[in-house]
Design brief:
It contains 17 helices and seven strands. By secondary structure, it is mainly alpha-helical.
């Protein structure tokens, strides 16, 4: 019996108490949805909560692991009536098929918070669903609405599913909660996961698009200098330093400040950040990025370049104190810049460039900065500045061979006569 009304299990990290010290149990509405004994459900839930809590050092990792684990235990408890210790290979395969075509009652049309505040308590959000269907930014602007019937599980989502569940069961084995890893027993994951013959193309802005983003901001600077000077500095950091949004936003683990720009004994400037996996790295600062920094600091009334102990937030709020802590707000700021550039491209008759820019995301700026630099800089230097774990990742941005392959194919004929 598939549950029609679903209840979220795991709250946001800042509302989650340490399950290793304080335990973890589910709510009565969850117990009412399954025939599994309450003690067995709570034992599973405690294992899940403790596993998730070990990833508290990264909000993004915690959120992605929580999504996969929550879907899985909801399916185990409410669909199959299984405890974690009863899961076998055939159940994992059945779960994958379930995720590829979940019931419409399990699919939402927008991302919402799992829990809401009410009368001093955290209350389950009735609008929450384990799966969410979305439409592209461009389709949304054309009036398209998300339709649960159009839900499709991407290959990257499938890969994440296998990866997280395998890691989860290895953890359960170490904790002696289960005897085996059913994910590892699947011998033919290829029937679910497609393999690419070549490395996938990195999505990036064209030179024309990036130029128009900068020109669009310059054109409106006088209208609201506080807003647009900050916007210009944000896109400069994303492009010039290859930063991720999470490396610009303030969080419990990282508060980017002006003093994170610093000069070494040889007079070279660097920027220190903390990225994925809570890894700290130093990024070499180009002369052009240093010019962008000077420009923004002079607008703020600060010294041209930071001094030791300058705790000014790197990306400050326009109203209020402190730095921007919301990655969503940074996305919105950059999207406004993309929108202005799109309008400029359309006005110039560059409809194809404009249409392509409408699909761009903020992360494309990082990709674009890396792609431009890898043309002229040693790949090892770009690798270390970007925080890539290996040169193989950086190689994805080198498309010389791909361009040559296309050039050699351009003159191919269909009719040789």
């Amino acid at each position: 019996m598939i549950a029609q009304k679903l209840v979220p299990i795991f709250d946001n990290l800042n509302y989650m108490v340490n399950p290793f010290r304080h335990g973890f149990s589910v709510s009565e509405p969850i117990l009412a949805l399954t025939t599994i004994p309450a003690n067995a459900v709570n034992a599973d839930a405690l294992c899940c909560a403790q596993f998730l809590y070990t990833y508290r050092g990264s909000l993004d990792t915690f959120a992605s692991y929580r999504r996969e684990i929550e879907r899985f235990v909801q399916w185990c408890w409410f669909v199959e009536g299984l405890c974690l210790s009863e899961v076998r290979r055939q159940h994992i395969e059945a779960f994958v098929h379930f995720c590829q075509a979940p019931p419409l009652s399990w699919i939402g049309v927008k991302s919402v918070q799992r829990f809401q505040n009410g009368d001093g308590l955290r209350i389950a959000n009735p609008a929450w669903r384990p799966f969410v269907v979305k439409v592209s930014k461009r389709d949304h602007r054309l009036g398209a609405d998300p339709d649960p019937k159009q839900y499709d599980l991407s290959q990257s989502a499938l890969q994440a599913l296998f990866s997280v569940l395998s890691t989860f069961f290895n953890y359960l084995i170490q904790e002696e909660a289960v005897a085996l890893n059913p994910v590892a027993q699947i011998r033919q994951k290829g029937k679910f996961l497609r393999k690419r013959q070549a490395v996938s193309t990195v999505r990036r802005l064209s030179e024309a698009q990036w130029h128009e983003v900068l020109m669009a901001i310059e054109a409106v600077l006088h209208e609201d200098p506080d807003k647009w000077q900050r916007s210009l500095f944000i896109v400069s950091c994303l492009f010039g330093l290859y930063l991720r949004i999470s490396e610009l936003a303030a969080s419990d683990r990282w508060q980017p400040e002006m003093e994170h720009f610093w000069k070494d004994a040889q007079g070279n400037w660097w920027f220190t950040t903390v990225g994925k996996g809570n890894k700290e790295r130093d990024i070499s600062v180009s002369d052009a990025m240093l010019t962008a920094l000077r420009r923004y600091r002079q607008y703020l009334g600060l010294t041209p370049l930071p001094l030791i102990g300058d705790h000014t937030p790197l990306i400050a709020k326009i109203r209020g104190k402190g730095g921007i802590a919301s990655t969503r707000q940074i996305r919105f700021i950059v999207q406004e810049c993309f929108d202005l550039a799109t309008l400029r491209l359309k006005a110039q008759g560059e409809s194809e460039e404009a249409a392509a820019l409408e699909t761009a995301t903020v992360h494309w700026l990082r990709h674009t900065g890396i792609s431009e630099d890898v043309k002229t800089r040693p790949r090892e230097h770009v690798r270390d500045d970007a925080g890539h774990g290996s040169s193989a990742i950086t190689d994805r941005y080198i498309d010389v061979e791909r361009q040559a392959r296309h050039a050699s194919a351009r003159a191919k004929k269909i009719n040789p006569t």
